[in-house]
Amino acid sequence: MPDKREATVVEEGERFGAVLDESGDPYAPGGPSTLRGPLKAGLWVAITLCLTTVMIHVLLVFLHVAPENPVSQQYRQQVDSWVYPLFEQDWQLFAPNPESVNWKISVRTRHTGPDGSTHVSPWFDITAVDESAVEHDPFPSHTNQNMLRRAWSAYLQNYGGGDEPTSQRAVMMQEYLRNIAAARVAANRRGSFESLQLRVVAVPIPASKAPDGTGPSPAPANTRYLPWWKVSSHRY
């Protein structure tokens, strides 16, 4: 005579369309808790896509930071399209490039009123905002540490001492830097603006002095004013 528990399990399995194994256990392989074919196949496809994306990302970043070679030169456009601006690296494999200058970036905004009058705001130090967010934080945000600094470094690499774009990438980096500045102002000030201007102060990092205290004198700070850039009308 079949066990009462076994009969109940079989009845429940038939009610829910479960596929039972010979033991009649719905939780054994082949029971209802086992992923069915299409769902399992979809899961493996998703895992495969994720792993493939990660491997491609690692490969492209490696080509970006590695010394120049035939492969990186041949696929430079594809590598740059993937890396910039979100995955840009601040180092080169086997050849670190430490910063020699501290950048202090400020922004001011301009708003035109209904009567045609123009109001220009005081300078707002957005570098100081990032520094205050990082200071005394044991787990500082990567965004606060690097986003603004890397955006400015990328702008310098594409524009040098001028401000006229010479490539589509240069236009993209200008828009990237402009949007970061607009977002920082909007998050910390009240008012409206339709354009903004950046002021960048380069403060050289002094070289280490000799044990006797002698050494080169620090270079003077250099200030650069960027053009006024139009932005979408902001209210903050």
Explained architecture:
- Residues 16-21 have low confidence and may be disordered.
- Strands 1, 2, 3, 4, 5 and 6 form a 6-stranded antiparallel sheet that branches.
- The chain has 7 helices and 6 strands, in the order ααααβββαααβββ.
- The protein is α+β, with helices and mostly antiparallel strands and 236 residues long.
- The protein has helices spanning 4-15, 37-65, 70-74, 76-83, 126-134, 142-159, 168-188, and strands at residues 101-112, 118-120, 124-125, 192-204, 222-225, 229-235.
Helix content: 40-55%
Gross morphology: globular
Helices, by number, come to: 7
- Name the quaternary structure: single chain
Give a count of the beta strands, DSSP E runs of length 2 or more: 6
How many strands, what sense, and barrel or not for the largest sheet? 6 strands, antiparallel
- Give the H and E element order: HHHHEEEHHHEEE
Mean pLDDT: 80
Beta-strand proportion: 15-25%
Structural class: alpha+beta
Low-confidence stretches: 16-21
The gyration radius over C-alpha positions equals 29 Å
The separation of the N and C termini measures 78 Å
